[in-house]
Each structure stands twice: as structure tokens, then as C-alpha cells.
Write a structure and sequence with these properties.
The chain has 324 residues and is mainly α. It is built from 19 helices and no strands. Helix 16 packs antiparallel against helix 17. The protein starts with a helix and ends with a helix. About 5% of the residues have low confidence.
Length: 324
């Protein structure tokens, strides 16, 4: 618990600095001061994080790395050419990643301090210290939301190319631009939530585990080598076995949030709220289905990151005493 105390203190201070209530005349300065603090603490880590050693080795041996994404390869080669230490490189990536989050919260959130709290509470502040390449791809997709809203297909495509250059899993977000033309009723959204829970708890984990074992021998050798960890370790045996008490509470919380967003947020003739709701519901549905299933669980973040922006809408419902 002692080792977590600096992060708990950072959480409290950062949320406090993000509040417009306490810093009415200096809200922008205090908000970005919170960004500076989180980058200073997390970005200057040394031998912290499950992927720390892996990325240090990757940076030091970038030329011998198989199938590394071109964006990460080029930036790492540039950093190495400039003789930037591997630890400092990881710090720079973290600063860039959180910068996109802070920009998105500043532009879209109705309650910055609450969004920052959710950013910590759902674990993104910690996740981004580990999954370096994918984290950068995730926040680029988050930032690209502005171009979906503005119907700027050209800039959205550029963002997708940039995101894919750091992690190929960003391909799951490429179709997000089409959601601006989708109209889903509340009944449809609630049905999606219910079905995703049924699939996640009772079907998907065991089905994928079966298929993975049955067809592992047919997978290309290069694919097996690249994802050797997953080929040598079973997928999660269903979500129930993978969810401890803390995760179970989070699932209950997220689905309650989803129900509140669907039933209480007035999104009629409001394209921004509709798209934000769709992305958040998709993220929660994917969380319901894929948590505890290796590889697939990492695809969840491209949509669930939007909960950071959407959650304040629920608080506004209660503060307004009705529909938001």
C-alpha cells in the first residue's frame, strides 16, 4: 500500500487541479499543471511496469525486431540516432500519449476533473505505462473523434494511418467514421448490452479457447512466433474465472453507467452526444465480452477510452434532477 501512496496523492492533486470550481480564473493553467505532474511522475519511471524490460530491449535492438510497426520503428531509430536514452524515450512516449488525452478532455468533457478521475479510476494512467505502442494508437483514435464530428474524412484517415503505424490493432477503429450516419434506438442499445453480457459470461471465452487449440497447428509460423506468448498460454477459460471482486464491481459500475447514458441522456438532434454514446456503449459491450480473453481484451480500449469523456454526462443527469 505504501508503494501506491504517491499515485494516490497524484490522483487527488491532479483531479483537484483539473477542477474549474477551485481555479476559476486560472482553470486552464491548473489543468495543464495536472498534465505536467502526471507526466513527471509516470514518465520518469525506472524499471516500473510489466512491459518495461521488454520495451527497453526492443528499443536497444530495434533493427532485429520482427514486424515492428513502422511509426514506432522510425521514431525509435530517430531517438537512437540522437542518442536518447531508452528510459527517456519511454517517458517521451508517455507524455505524447497523455497529451492527446488531455486535449480530448479539454475539448469534449463537461467535467474535466471527473474525466481525469475516470482516467485514473479505469486504469488508463497505469495501462499507458505498459502498452506503449498500442496506447499511443488508442489516444490518436480518441483524438480523431473531432474529425468524425466535423465530418472531415481526410484528417480522420490521416489519424488512422498514424495510429496504425504504431499498432496494427487500431484497425478496429477504422470503421468508427461510419457511426456518424447510424441511428440506434435505446431499445437496440440496451439489447446490445444484454447480449454482450450473455456472450461474455457464458459463450465467448470457452469458444475461442476451443478454436484456438483446434487450429493452432494451422497458423502461419511467423504468426506463432510473433504471438508466442498467446500460443503457449491458454486463453482465459470464460470471464467468470477471470473476474475477481474488484473487476466485478467495475463491470457492474460500467453497465449501470451504460444504462444511465442510454435511458437518461437526451441526445435528440445532438450528433455529438449520439456518437459519444455509441462509442461508449460499444466499449462497454466489448468489455463485457472480451475481458479475460488474451489479445481480444486489448481491442476494447479503442472504444472504452470514450467513457472518460462520457461519464460526466451521468453526473449531470443527477445534478439536473432528470434527463441530461
Amino acid at each position: 500500500m505504501l508503494s501506491l501512496s504517491p499515485y494516490i496523492e497524484l490522483f487527488i492533486v491532479t483531479v483537484f487541479l483539473s477542477s474549474r470550481i477551485f481555479f476559476k480564473h486560472y482553470a486552464k493553467v491548473s489543468y495543464w499543471l495536472g498534465f505536467f505532474l502526471i507526466c513527471l511522475i509516470f514518465g520518469s519511471r525506472f524499471e516500473v511496469g510489466t512491459d518495461y524490460a521488454t520495451y527497453i530491449n526492443l528499443i536497444q535492438n530495434i533493427d532485429s525486431s520482427l514486424n515492428i510497426e513502422p511509426g514506432f520503428y522510425i521514431m525509435t531509430k530517430l531517438f537512437n540516432f540522437l542518442d536518447v536514452a531508452p528510459t527517456l524515450q519511454l517517458g517521451i512516449y508517455y507524455v505524447i500519449t497523455v497529451f492527446f488525452v488531455w486535449l480530448s478532455i479539454a475539448r469534449w468533457s463537461q467535467n474535466r476533473s471527473l474525466s481525469v478521475a475516470v482516467f485514473f479510476g479505469l486504469g488508463y494512467a497505469f495501462l499507458f505505462t505498459n502498452q506503449v505502442r498500442q496506447s499511443l494508437a488508442i489516444v490518436i483514435c480518441l483524438y480523431s473523434y473531432r474529425y468524425i464530428f466535423e465530418k472531415n474524412a481526410k484528417n480522420f484517415i490521416l489519424c488512422m494511418i498514424f495510429a496504425l503505424s504504431f499498432h496494427y490493432s487500431a484497425i478496429v477503429f477504422c470503421g468508427a467514421y461510419l457511426l456518424k450516419n447510424v441511428k440506434l434506438s435505446n431499445r437496440m442499445l440496451l439489447s446490445m448490452l444484454f447480449i454482450s453480457l450473455l456472450i461474455g459470461f457464458f459463450l465467448l471465452g470457452n469458444l475461442i479457447d476451443f478454436l484456438f487449440k483446434a487450429y493452432e497447428s494451422y497458423a502461419p509460423a511467423l504468426l506463432v512466433k510473433k504471438y508466442s506468448y498467446y500460443f503457449n498460454n491458454q486463453f482465459g477459460d470464460g470471464l467468470i474465472d477471470q473476474r475477481d471482486y474488484g473487476i466485478g464491481i467495475r463491470f457492474i459500475f460500467l453497465n449501470l453507467v451504460a444504462i444511465m447514458l442510454v435511458t437518461k441522456v437526451n441526445r435528440e438532434n445532438n450528433e455529438h452526444l449520439s456518437m459519444l454514446l455509441y462509442f461508449s456503449i460499444i466499449g462497454i459491450c466489448l468489455t463485457n465480452m472480451f475481458t479475460g480473453i488474451e489479445v481480444l481484451s486489448r481491442l476494447v480500449y479503442f472504444y472504452s477510452i470514450f467513457i472518460v469523456i462520457a461519464l460526466p454526462l451521468v453526473v449531470n443527469i443527477f445534478s439536473a434532477g432528470g434527463e441530461g
